[in-house]
Design a protein that fits this description.
heterodimer; A: mainly alpha; MetI-like fold; 13 helices; globular; B: mainly alpha; 10 helices
């Protein structure tokens, strides 16, 4: 997020209660859905009229260590990384290329790369499924291909935004000073675009990490990721504990990554 | 090599897979919906999948209703969050962080959480002492829980976009308006709202198209029947009855058509909004 300067203002004659009330409601709006999730993840027994669980236990969270859940977590991690790598690299290349193309061409390329945003993922998956089956592409690469296509608009957009304020003169100066093109890439371009790269990779990782519908339809049950385990737990009744624990397992890793991204980089230049 | 050809070559590894998957998927879906690409048997042209007892139209209507209601909710709450974040003190920073942190939460998780919160014996009903008049949000015909789930997730997205787009200008303009004697409400309606309008329009369009094609929340939180487009398409796609395949494809394509129509109409409308270039 960009830095902004909040200003505290008190309007003449304004009511003093509106702002705290609005603030309270907004905090409630954001936090309330997470309360039952957290309570259920540590509840042993929580019968209907009780507002709070009668007893607590770590059974729900312990279920996350079951072999099948661990395997699914591993599969989700691998899927997230397998989408993040090509989507970030190809997104960066495409963004650089768009910058060098004349206007009309740049627009065309950008339109194609943003087009997946306009197509509902399930429609994309259903249509491509018959082609991928026909071409005998195995389940995992098929899922990675479709999800990379889904993730590319985000990574291209991130790099386009970063390149808008990127100054080519840094590279020119480095070259004038005798740096090889490899050195320019490693010492100038990559450090300058490190934050944008991290953000783009994070978004692309999320596409793979949290995908449900593509894995379900293309994977055809062969590929069992964390969202698929969560989906089957959440759609059955009486699985509140497991649903809550699996939900937390899905939220926590991306939030940790996000916190890492929010920490100011240590390599800030003078 | 000419610079243009070189640039196109660099873009090609990204452009080709996108173009191939997109056109391949749409063409294959269209052919399948018309019976021209059957899994088994001979291809036979038929438009039966496109007018199956008005079911497709009903599903489209439900999807448009859910997407429209979710968009309105997200835009209103998202604007309130952004306005609060942009104009007050410490608590606004905490709200900004919490709101931004909820953006990466997957819709599947949010849908599960809304189920635990809003079902008949859910957390909210328990807090209110299980009243008999508790609205049937989960599984009800109004798709209330699904709309709240979309509103919850997407309002955080809208707020993020708005804060990003207004951060530089909002502070100074609000200060100036306050100096001239504008009340908090006046600043919100006459300074922040017009300032937010272009970004609000774009994010509304993104939310509408996204919620139109989103499967998880209506599937987990909606009634068994009738179904919106994504739920109907996925059910038919997974059906053992292979004759359901053309209908699944027609349903998927209907969502593509509605989405593209919304984008076209939205862009036309946005051009008319003042301040939009």
């Amino acid at each position: 997020m960009q830095a902004y300067q909040p200003v505290r203002l008190r309007a003449a004659g304004g009511t003093g209660i509106t702002r705290p009330l609005l603030g309270g409601l907004l905090f409630l709006w954001i936090l309330l859905p997470l309360v039952p999730l957290i309570l259920w993840s540590v509840a042993a027994e929580w019968r209907a009229p009780d507002v709070l669980p009668g007893a607590f236990s770590t059974d729900g969270l312990a279920a996350l260590l079951r072999p099948e859940v661990l395997t699914a977590t591993g599969a989700s991690l691998v899927l997230g990384l397998s989408v993040a790598l090509p989507a970030t690299v190809l997104g960066a290349l495409a963004a650089f290329a768009i910058r060098r193309l004349p206007n009309g061409w740049a627009r065309g390329v950008e339109m194609i790369l943003l087009a997946p945003l306009a197509i509902p993922p399930f429609a994309l998956v259903m249509g491509s499924n018959v082609l991928l089956l026909g071409a005998r592409v195995p389940a995992f690469p098929s899922v990675v291909l479709v999800l990379t296509v889904t993730a590319l608009p985000y990574t291209v957009f991130m790099f386009r935004a970063a390149l808008a304020s990127y100054d080519d003169q840094f590279e020119e100066v480095a070259r004038t000073l005798g740096a090889s093109s490899r050195a320019v890439l490693a010492r100038v371009r990559i450090p300058l675009l490190a934050r944008a790269t991290a953000r783009a990779a994070f978004l692309a990782f999320l596409v793979g990490w949290s995908d449900y519908i593509t894995t379900l339809l293309v994977g055809g049950g062969q590929l069992l990721t964390l969202p698929l385990v969560l989906g089957s737990a959440a759609s059955a009744t009486g699985n509140e504990q497991l649903t809550a624990a699996l939900s937390l397992a899905m939220i926590v890793p991306p939030l940790l990554l996000l916190a890492l991204l929010a920490v100011p980089g240590p390599r800030r230049r003078r | 090599m000419a610079p243009r050809a070189r640039a196109l070559l660099i873009a090609a590894p990204a452009v080709l897979p996108v173009a191939l998957v997109l056109t391949g998927a749409l063409v294959a879906a269209l052919l399948q919906s018309l019976g021209l690409l059957p899994i088994i048997g001979e291809p036979e042209f038929s438009t039966a999948a496109w007018d199956a007892d008005g079911e497709l139209l009903l599903a489209t209507g439900i999807s448009v209703y859910i997407a429209a209601a979710s968009t309105v909710l997200s835009v209103v709450v998202g604007f309130l969050i952004a306005a609060y974040v942009l104009t007050s003190g410490v608590s606004s920073r905490v709200l900004a962080v919490l709101s931004a942190a909820s953006v990466p939460i997957p819709h599947l998780v949010a849908a599960g959480a809304m189920g635990l919160l809003l079902s008949d014996a859910g957390f909210l009903a328990r807090v209110f002492g299980m009243p008999s008049g508790f609205p049937g949000l989960v599984g009800g015909r109004g798709w209330g829980a699904a709309i709240l789930e979309f509103g919850w997730k997407e309002s955080a997205f809208v707020a993020l976009v708005l804060v990003g787009s207004m951060a530089r200008s909002a502070g100074g303009l609000c200060e100036a308006a306050a100096t001239l004697g504008a009340s908090a409400k006046q600043r919100m309606l006459h300074v922040l709202l017009p300032l937010a309008l272009p970004a609000l329009g774009v994010s509304a369009l993104v939310v509408f198209v996204y919620t139109l094609g989103s499967y998880e929340a209506p599937w987990l939180l909606g009634p068994v029947s009738p179904e919106p487009l994504p739920v109907r398409a996925v059910r038919l796609f997974g059906s053992i009855d292979l004759t359901a395949r053309p209908e699944a494809m027609a349903t998927a394509l209907a969502s593509v058509v509605v989405g593209l129509a919304a984008i076209g109409a939205g862009l036309l409308l946005l051009r008319r909004v003042r301040g939009w270039r």
